[in-house]
Amino acid sequence: MTTVRPLSLQLVLPIWTAEVPSPPHDGLSVAERREHLRRHPASYLAVTRAPEDVEPGQSSELKHLLDEGKKSLQALKQQGVFGPEHDQTYFAYRLSADDHSQTGIVCGIATSEYDSGDVRIHEKIKGERADHLANHFEVVGAQSSPIALTFDPTKEFSDLLAASTAADPALDFVSPDGLRQQIWAIDKSQNDSISTALEQSTFYLIDGHHRAAAASRLRHRLDPASELANDADWMLCAAFPSDQIKNHAFHRVVSIADFDSLHTLLSKKFAVRSGSTETFHQRQDSELVVGGVDSDGNQVWLFVDLPFGGTTEDPLADLDPVRLSSQLLHPVLDIDESSPGTRLRYRSGPGDAQSVSAIDLTPQEAIFVMRPVPIEALVAAADKGLTMPPKSTYFLPKVRSGVFLRTIGHR
Predict the structure, then answer these.
(1) Computed from CA positions of residues 112, 118, 119, 123, in that sequence, does the dihedral angle turn out positive or negative?
(2) C-alpha triplet 90, 170, 107: angle, nearest 5°
(3) pTM of this structure
């Protein structure tokens, strides 16, 4: 049983929806995040900036970033960006993009459920990132990025949610990138029924592993009698039914000397054959697509065979990101995904030939194209307490920062 409750939240006002809600942080490159802030100085990205997002010549010292994030949020509040607080309220939250739509609920889940493993995880985290986010929550005094989870809904919950979204939404807007967000404040007379329906479910974390870890770390280091500790007992979450979510892939972009040298190295370790965008669909199940730029500036594609070796005890071993990490990145290229400062970056998106070939690469970069991890594999791994490499899943559409605001420890 999972402990779930409504939270007291504010919503961004309609006149600010084109400026304040931020695009997904990991869906943009560092350069794109910097450019977004130049164009949209009121974006919530200014509150949550990471060290790499700082403009050249500006301080990226962590304490400075936290103080600047606090100032940025204070500026948003002074401008009246957020509406009045909805006390102890559940919200229905619908995200629609392209031909996909999903409707879930924004709620509080007990931080202790993360500690106990009742909120189940599937990805590893970087400890320093979780520590920074815990400091962010404490210094900035707010949360605005819901942790995204999935669960198997009961008929009782589905009926409650359908009834709650029959009326006009309290907020309905389309972001500049095309994401439509609709929000309904659910009548508080339904709070007990919703809590009861949700508490029978098992929740699986699909986005926000570092935010969940940060919530736990903050809770454990606070004086239990403090006001902030009481708020830290609850994580801001958005939970979506498992039959509505859609997973994409996180491709791996690796720094190399040149693509010819990489080709030679891979050929010594694995079965490698030449490919092309026209033959993407002809690759074998065990083959990964690797792309780069040759010395003449032409795109080059290889199919690299990474053997399967999974068992029922290890349902992860045959997944693309796991085979890549265990067979190639670490033993061949000496890249450890668990440590910072590696020669690796991530690029989300579809894995079809047209989308991947449009990604700009330098002659000193190679891209390893990943296939999406099935939701069944995620659940199986989480149920066994297993974790995948970082950025193994990419669920779209993503919840956004700057739409909901939860004040913590500063009443």
Answers:
(1) positive
(2) 15
(3) 0.86
Q: What percent of the chain has pLDDT over 70?
A: 98
CA proximity to 263, closest of 252, 247, 275: 275
Phi, psi of 370 (to 5 degrees): -100, 150
Amino acid identity of 246? K
Confidence of residue 368 (pLDDT cuts 50, 70, 90): very high
Q: What is the pLDDT of residue 410?
A: 60
pLDDT band at 411 (very low <50, low <70, confident <90, very high): very low
Omega of the bond leading into 397 within 30 degrees of 0 (cis): yes
Burial class (CB in 10 A: 0-12, 13-18, 19+), 87: exposed
**What's the rounded mean pLDDT across residues 320-335?**
94
Closest CA to 257 of 345, 359, 338, 343: 343
Q: pLDDT tens-digit profile of 154-169?
A: 899 999 999 999 999 9
